[in-house]
Amino acid sequence: MKYYFALARNFTLVILTALAVVFAVGTLRQSPPNAPAIEEYKETTFARALLSPSVFSFEMKLYITEKDKASQKDVTSVCVEGVGSAFTVDEKGYFATNNHVVDVAAKEKFCTDNLAKTRNVPVSSLFGLRFNVKNFIIDSQNRRWNVDVIKTFPESDVAVLKISNDQTSGTPPKKWKVAEFRTGSPHIVNGKVVSGTGPYVVPDEPIIMIGTPLELPFTITRGMLGNNTFRVGGKTPYLHFIAPINSGNSGGPVISLLDFKVIGMATMTKPDFGGMTQQSGAVPFWEIQKALKQVDMK
Predict the structure, then answer these.
(1) DSSP tag of 48
(2) Which terminus of the chain is more exposed, N or C, with fewer CB under 10 A?
(3) Residue 154: what pLDDT?
């Protein structure tokens, strides 16, 4: 009898031990409470490492030259400074940004109006003003290179830049890392992203922007696409996305976290509900590519 009791006891201990091991393994396999945040951090870190070499801060300096009344000598000063973002579209040193970021005429008007206001004189009294523009791209290591505006597309708010032959800040790379555009419609199959046909985006897909919001370089902002496109005055459709755009984001790439490809270019906000909220918009990647096809990239 004692033998059977001992056998039952040992059998019970084995069962309880096995259950304890199973419970312990199951507990270890459970995700920690901050698992979603950790996964988001991994995505963002991966995207930053992958795309930072192809994303740049953009800076424009508009110089104004006029004669000093007393000395009659030319005096040059910076009248307007603008900031934005840009990204590479060709390894030979071509970049895309927004047209409104490089719009010289608008900035010259702003400069002239501001000068007249500061001096409390009419704009018509200002004459003999000469303007000169310098455009720069700055990488994540704070290296700066001159760029020239090659072609602009005001209707889609796209501008194409090229590395300048006139460099004062060091020799630029011979081969630039290029930000890749999406080539097809992503589908999720068995938990993996595969590419289908057509220049499409997926409603609600997670996205990030890399840019220079509020002059803070290489800042990543997370968000998601909306369900629709919208238009503001022109024919070009803008991708609606839910993420804040600040001054300096303009011209930066909007990147999908499904395939880490460029699906748009951050370009504008649209006031809504009496100006209380802002809807963000991006030039779709197919519109950017349409513009790039009209540029002879030699």
Answers:
(1) H
(2) N
(3) 92
pTM for the model: 0.81
Q: Which residue has the higher pLDDT, 57 or 186?
A: 57
Any residues with CB less than 8 A from the CB of 185 and at least 6 apart, and which?
A: 195, 196, 197, 198, 199, 200, 201, 202
Condensed to tens digits (0 to 9), the pLDDT of residues 208-253 reads 988 888 878 888 888 898 877 777 777 788 898 888 788 888 999 9
CA distances from 200 to 81, 179, 184, 242, 264 (A): 36, 18, 7, 18, 11
- Identity of residue 103: D
Contacts of 205 (CB under 8 A, 6+ apart): 186, 224, 225, 256, 257, 258
pLDDT in tens, 45-70: 888 888 889 999 999 988 888 887 77
pLDDT at position 66 = 81
Distance separating alpha carbons of residues 165 and 99, to the nearest angstrom: 22
Candidates 251, 250, 249, 231; CA nearest to 240 is: 231
Distances (CA, A) of 296 to 73, 94, 150, 214, 293: 42, 11, 10, 33, 8
From 2.30.110.10, 2.40.10.10, 3.30.365.10, 3.40.190.10, which CATH number describes the 51-163 domain? 2.40.10.10
Q: What is the pLDDT of residue 145?
A: 93
Residue 222: which of 239, 209, 205 has the closest Cα?
A: 209
Contact present, 225 and 240 (Cβ < 8 Å): yes
Place of tokens 């000063």: 77
Give the CATH fold of the 186-292 domain. Answer: Thrombin, subunit H (2.40.10)
Query: What tokens does 11 get?
Result: 């059998």
Domain extent listing, the chain: 51-163, 186-292
